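Exercise 7. Predict the joint structure of the components listed below.
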Amino acid sequence: MLGRLWIVITFVLVIASLLFHQLVLLTVAILFFLTGGIARLWDRNSLKMVSYKRKLSSDRVFFGEKIDLEVEIANRKPLPLPWIQIDDEIPRNVTMLKGKTDVSHLPTNVVLNNMFSIGWYHKIKRHYPLQCSQRGLYTFGPATMRTGDIFGFFVRQEEVSELQHLIVYPRIVPLEYLLTPSRQPMGDIRIKSNLFQDPILTQGVREYHYGDSLKRIHWKSTARHGELQTRIFEATTTIDMAIFLDVRTVAAPYWGNVPEKLELAIITAVAVAKYALTNGYRVGLYVNQYKHGTGSIIRVPPNRNVNQFKLLLETLAPIQDFEAMPVSRLISNESRNLPWGSSLVVITAAPTEEVTSTLFNLKRTGRQVSMIQIGGEEPEASGSHIKTYHVSDKVSWQEIETIEVS
Amino acid sequence: MKISARLSQINWTADFLTPLAAIMMEAFCIFPWLVFMGRWPLLLAQRNVLNFPSVIVLIAGAYIITRFFLSRKIAVPLASLNIVFIGLILIFAVIRLEYSDGYPIFGGEWFLAYGRILLNVFTRLHPIAIAIPCTFFLYWRGISRAQSPMYFHNIYPVFLTGLGSLILLAVLWGISENNNLRDIAGQIGIFIAGYFFFGLFTLALTNLQNIRTRLKRKEGTPASFNRRWLGIVLGVITGIVAIGSGISSLFSSQVSSFLSRTIGFLWNLVERAAYYIFIPISYVVGWLLIFFQWLVAMLRRKQETQPAETLTPSTPPDMPNVITRSLSPETILILKWTFFTLVLATLVLFLVRAILRNRRTKTDDEINEEHESLWSWHGFQNDFKQWLDSLKNRFKWPEKPPVVRYDWDDETNSKLAIRQIYERLLWYTARLNIPRYAQETPYEYERRLKPAFREQQKILFEITQYYVNNRYGNSTEDEQENAKANALWDKLRPAFSQKLHEQQAPTDLNKLRADTKRDPRTIGTNF
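Solution:
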């Protein structure tokens, strides 16, 4: 309001009122002073003791779930705020079921506009239902608070840099059947026959045969039967499965991506991982992409921990469509660290000669390898002896009910 | 249904409240000038050129007419023609009513009389001669208000111009020698108060419109927002005007008496409004009571006349002896009341259902909002105390921060950290009038020091290097580095000390040494 002239004008009016003996001028001066003073009081103090918070009902959700976004504004001072506008950055892919949004300077975001009128010592909460219909790692915020005096002379703004993160897991659909397993000498999964037996798991006893080790004699049964009895151990194995996910969806040397194929590839990886974990496999995941905010490749070593599936989902949620290195190189690098006998499953939408030859080399060294091709033409039975499966992309990934590998 | 839908679509703030406030602002600005002009000694009759309702009618009429024709899909020249034509009729009507002077409305005498007055206007100035151009000006103000959108940046200059014109008027009034003018000087105060009230209200409303336009959600703001906003704005503006008028009335008995007169007038208005509202309601209630009385009387009459109709003395009925029982008056009364209650309950039920349905549809569309009060007496006391303290501090003379001086020259030989060495280096160079500037990097400073310490150039460079590595490098200080730095410092320090002694008088140094001494280990940890 007229900048610093405000005080000068008031002063001049007071002087004029004294000169002309005019109370009317004094009234104008007082009203002018009060208007300017109150406007400035609001301008200086409006954003003091004002807090803005954002809360999500859950920070990890499954695909398609609904969550609640709660925004809370509190004014902890005796000065009411006739208006306060809050522009909050919200991810575009999270659908807002209520409330209106505006375009943001960031292409991945929209701006949630909120306008409040808050009294003194007052708190207002608003709830917005959100539909999570796209996997990803999303960031809510930052927000900008803008307020001012009631007349619109001054506007003041402040940024609330606090961020909230939300992970939307990829879609989980069942898989038709399991791929070829690998075999470890010993492990947790019972198999029909094996060269190696687990000395901890006793299957039963039989009569002693010449040549049986004395260590295998079951002495209690021997005492009971009156003749030597030998323990029979169970043949077991541990199956390791390493899933290699290729984020490239267009065959080299072309650049670009087919989001539908990438989503289908991720859903397939989830389905394979879930199936394998349910059936006792130790599952690991390798993606030819850098981890968010780091310079290291996405790598989850094989494990059968109860949290492994959650970890895999969290790893797959933020995957984007840019590759850090060709998947063939990733396989070569990572296969060295995998246990002997583990199964390698490569999921790719753009299979190349390099991938095939890398897998062939690994097969020659005794690894169990297989490849799942996403979309495109169904692969012919090739002479490379690499088991190749095909997942059709004719049905959209949003509507797919089960992953059918053929 | 259509009417209610249309009503719900109206943006009351933008389409009704803001223009009304703007019109009132204009009226409160112009009317004092009309009062002032009506008191000119040159005039034939001393009266207001136009009265306040006429001012409002002209501006509001022009606004409504212009908005109406601009919203129609008609050619602009045709719309302009309509606006001008209706405007002329409105102006004539206002002038005719303002200056009726007892002439019959549809008679020709008024035209003759005022025609004559207007013909002699240059010899005998009549207020109507000023009123006619003023009506045109007011009509033009209304048109221009309707044409320009009600944005803050449009209204704010108008507010300032109006304020300036009122100040000018007050000055003119003050310097006027005319006694008539001096007598009514107190009257302008209320118009200034009114002008401020409506002006600030218009500014606040346009500010709200600006925000809403920015948010692109004219219909989307919750009802609680509008209620709260309006409450705060009206409270603040009324407060400003009341405090301003109150303070100025302390200096003038005239203004205070005028204010009390105005408040009395407003109270009379409220009383009259209440009278006009409650009288029809009381009539309706009275009629309803009469109707129910009549209904009750009718029902009672029917009961009483029933036996007389059925029996005649000539033809006695040949019927078995049946005992007929008529209903008692209490039962009839209960039945009537039950019927009445049922009808009323049905009506209330329908009404409640309609309201609930309306509310449900609204809440489905609206965002869930929770309100919570954070008020506590203790918190308020603390805030108030804090505010008083801040006010007190504002008028406090700022204290000079204490200057802390250290005398590193006195320091006995001890093992120092690299940062401490550099701190001491800066201390010496500052006293040798070569202080390091805030914008200088250590290397830049080292280059600037070179000419002053030609013999110690290498040592200076090495110490700087050690400091930079330690301060900005991602390395921790090891024993070997520390020992080397200390050895270098032991070589450099005597040179610094000697130069300092050459430069400063011994008395000054002693004074410096007598200043605050602190444990050197606690100093320089920030380096």
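Discussion. Residues 175-194+237-402 of chain A form a domain with the Rossmann fold fold (CATH 3.40.50).
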